[in-house]
Design a protein that fits this description.
With 226 residues, the chain is of the alpha+beta class. 31% of the residues lie in helices and 23% in strands. It folds into three domains: 60 residues; 103 residues; 40 residues, no CATH class. Strands 1-5-2 form a three-stranded antiparallel sheet, with no helix packed on it.
Length: 226
């Protein structure tokens, strides 16, 4: 839909881009990517130029939800502070399958962080763990992370994996249904679809299949049944 490029004003002025009918939008704020995310200090703002590839690019890209085929990736939302604070409450009644000895994080906190990461578009244990590690002090406090030496700690990837593998799926399903009822937007239509679970074999040697009910508008999963 749109090409984007950055020009360092300390070296160039983007003359070639202007001559090729690129549009100058302004300057970036000067932060740059690092292995940890973004730099804390402003280093070198860049000039931002764009060039539409289609005449309706501005109209398409300004829509609240991109239409197919431009919509890619997985559904995700940005959790509000209130949603972060309330999310652990939906998991607080789930029995903890872990032994009491060695528990370092409350079950409701682990499940809330995993749920928040998935709602934010994360997929897989590593992605969920990276999302958890990126949480700031305020967000960790809202998820009720345990404190040690004045710092709020998030569960590690191995803890998240262990909990999600061992917790009863039916309990998770009920908890997430309650969250949907409290916070999800309304869907006027629903889709029902079934998929085989990769590498999931039951005691009889049959591959597991799961039926899901998905909202057409919000893309939220309302329930799943084996």
């Amino acid at each position: 839909m749109l090409l984007e490029t950055f020009v360092d004003p300390q070296r160039f002025q983007g003359t070639v881009y202007r001559a090729a009918n690129w549009s100058y939008l302004g300057d970036s704020r000067g932060f740059r990517r690092t292995p940890q995310g973004y730099s804390d200090a402003v280093l070198s703002p860049k000039k931002v130029f764009v060039r539409p590839l289609q005449t309706d690019a501005r109209t398409v890209l300004s829509q609240p939800v991109l239409r197919s085929p431009y919509r890619q990736g997985v559904p995700k939302i940005m959790l509000s502070a209130q949603q972060m604070r309330s999310l652990p409450d939906f998991f607080i009644d789930i029995p903890d399958p872990r032994r009491a000895q060695g528990r370092r994080h409350a079950l409701c906190t682990v499940l809330a962080i995993a749920g928040g990461a998935i709602l934010g578009g994360m997929r897989g244990y590593k992605a969920i763990s990276d999302w958890a590690q990126s949480l700031g002090p305020k967000a960790r406090e809202r998820f009720r992370c345990r404190r040690e030496n004045g710092r709020s700690l998030v569960p590690s990837e191995s803890i998240i994996r262990d909990v999600l593998v061992r917790v009863e799926p039916a309990h998770l399903d009920r908890a997430l249904k309650r969250w949907n009822a409290a916070y999800a937007e309304n869907d006027t239509t629903l889709a029902i679809d079934g998929k085989p679970m990769c590498n999931a074999i039951d005691a009889q040697g049959h591959q597991l299949h799961v039926m899901s009910v998905i909202g057409h508008h919000t893309k939220n999963c309302y329930t799943q049944k084996r």
